[in-house]
Design goal:
This protein is mainly α and 119 residues long. The protein contains 3 helices and 2 strands.
Length: 119
């Protein structure tokens, strides 16, 4: 993680957010859909005292919110793929910049001061 650039870190953060939204959205949809059967028992309504089942008007907003969150996760996943491809393509073409090298004392590149004075 230390050797990643700032742009690559942003792409990874966007990927984590996309995964989080997608997983939470799918879990919410699954939990709400599995607990809501869509039918409610409405007490004895027949003349012989039998009970009937009728459609409920339950609050199904959890399915909508979960679906919206999962859709947002898919959208973010697509944007992450696109931005990741752009970032990695651009940064792979940039020259690698390493730590600045200090000249070694006594190397052949340096000439002694007496040699340059012309004596």
């Amino acid at each position: 993680m230390k050797n990643l650039s700032g742009a690559r870190r942003w792409v990874l953060a966007l990927a984590a957010l996309a995964a989080l939204c997608l997983v939470v959205g799918l879990v919410v949809v699954g939990v709400v859909a599995s607990t809501a059967d869509g039918w409610c028992q409405v007490g004895p309504t027949e003349s012989d005292g039998g009970q009937t089942w009728q459609g409920c008007t339950e609050d199904d907003s959890g399915v909508w919110w979960g679906g919206a969150l999962a859709a947002l996760g898919l959208l973010l996943a697509g944007l992450t793929c696109a931005s990741g491809a752009v970032v990695w393509a651009i940064e792979s073409r940039l020259p690698q910049v390493g730590p600045a090298e200090e000249p070694v004392s006594g190397s052949a590149d340096q000439q002694p001061a007496s040699a340059s004075s012309g004596h």
